[in-house]
Write a structure and sequence with these properties.
This protein is mainly beta. Helices cover 4% and strands 54% of the residues. The protein contains one helix and eight strands, in the order βββββββαβ. The chain has a four-stranded antiparallel beta sheet, with no helix packed on it. Strands 2, 5, 6 and 8 form a four-stranded antiparallel beta sheet that branches. 14% of the residues are buried. The mean pLDDT is 91.
Length: 106
């Protein structure tokens, strides 16, 4: 659970490796998705990003949290949508670290 009470600006910072099939014309059929969900995990409040293809090693991504999700408690959701990564020879999506940076003075 992430408490964003009193926070005016925050950035999700992730270090990850992904090797996910890229489907031309259907980017949402096979991808890794990062979302902000409510504290109960029941409702998606914001889509922060989606990843497909290959990161060619460990990669850093900074994803700005929109203003309308700040001020309360939320969760980050990481979802990999795939038809069959292993059968296609793709490694998948791996998270090394996730942190929320509060940006001061904004």
């Amino acid at each position: 659970l992430i408490d964003l009470a009193g926070i005016e600006r925050a950035v999700a910072q992730i270090v990850h490796f992904y090797d996910i099939e890229f489907v031309e014309g259907a980017p949402e059929s096979v991808a890794g998705f990062v979302r902000v969900v409510d504290a109960a995990g029941a409702s998606v409040l914001a889509d922060l990003g989606q990843f497909s293809g290959s990161s060619d090693g460990w990669a850093f991504s900074a994803l700005e949290l929109p203003e309308d999700v700040l001020g309360g408690e939320v969760r980050l959701e990481f979802e990999l949508v795939s038809d069959d990564l292993a059968l296609e020879g793709f490694a998948g999506w791996f998270l090394q670290s996730v942190q929320i940076e509060v940006v001061p003075g904004s």
